[in-house]
């Protein structure tokens, strides 16, 4: 093999297990520290094994490559692994060179003691790397002059020393730099994953808050009505309050399993029953604010859907209409239901304040809201639920004229 071929093979066998290690760490989620250390130890030992097994040339520069995994082990505080690697390197150095075993053993003992001393310094990674390279370069010159080629001419030995040390230094610094950069990329990847997890958790909690807010608002409204009109309305409103509390408990239960947020409990439902329940629930609050809901449904329509999820969508839309009413004109909300071939279309139209183009363009962005106390999740959550039913939801609006929400869902 030529020198170039050997260098290429050594580079591949050195870096390949380390690259596999970095990919593995980046891919795995919630990786324990001991597992990460175990994989790194295996990668370092694999690098040394591949170099000793598949590179035939046993010249000095080949043996120098064996020291790069050892240096990485020291930099990552793998003392046991460093000792094992040192013993393997000592064995092959004694096998393929004329250097006495005692000298090689002393050399690697010095490396270990130097590592222990440099652990207490401030820039220990830089100090360990530079000290290791300097000491190894000095010993290379010593070995060439006095042990490997003692009869060679001065010029030949100096040239040999220069080439050998240059190869060693270049590949060592490049390997360490690439490995450190790889670890930085992996750490950044893990940080991004953790940030996404936190963001997902925050969004989920925000959704939970938003979903609990609606039924609690309903309960509060009925309690205020009971308080104003006395206890004559208790028997009429208690079942509704109880139903909304049950809904709160159901939502909490759903959100306690974050991995099941996208699941649906589909069954055959009567759309008229669903919309009647929604309007009956919200009618007292609408009347309190001098608003009314007009439901137009001319035929029985059955579809396979999640009753409670769709109820969340309609409650959210109607509640948004109530909150977007004009102060001067009584709010009127029309719910028109149409059956078009295999699709169901629910069109909800109000005469509220409407939305300008900017609000309409941004309303599907998470956390975007024009309400002082809004979470910016109602529209996003409604869209998500409708899309989970393989349907679509479309908003059209004109400032000061009102808003129309069109929900299209397949019947089967």
How would you summarize the topology of this molecule?
Layout: H1 3-27, H2 33-54, H3 60-65, H4 67-75, H5 79-96, H6 101-118, H7 124-148, H8 154-229, H9 234-255, E1 267-270, H10 271-288, E2 292-296, E3 302-305, H11 307-323, E4 332-340, E5 343-350, H12 357-362, H13 378-388, E6 392-398, E7 402-410
Parallel strand pairs: 2-4
Antiparallel strand pairs: 1-3, 4-5, 5-7, 6-7
Helix pairs in contact: 1-2, 1-8, 2-4, 4-5, 5-6, 6-7, 7-8, 8-9, 10-11, 11-13
| Count of distinct strands | 7
Estimated helix fraction: 55-70%
Rounded to an integer in angstroms, the radius of gyration calculated over CA atoms is: 36 Å
Low-confidence residue ranges:
none
User: How would the global form be characterised?
Assistant: rod-shaped
Q: Mean pLDDT, as a whole number?
A: 83
Q: Structural class of the helix and strand makeup?
A: alpha+beta
Element-level helix/strand string: HHHHHHHHHEHEEHEEHHEE
Q: What share of the residues does DSSP label as strand, in percent?
A: 5-15%
Largest sheet: 5 strands, mixed
Number of helices: 13
Q: How far is it from the N-terminal to the C-terminal residue, by CA?
A: 70 Å
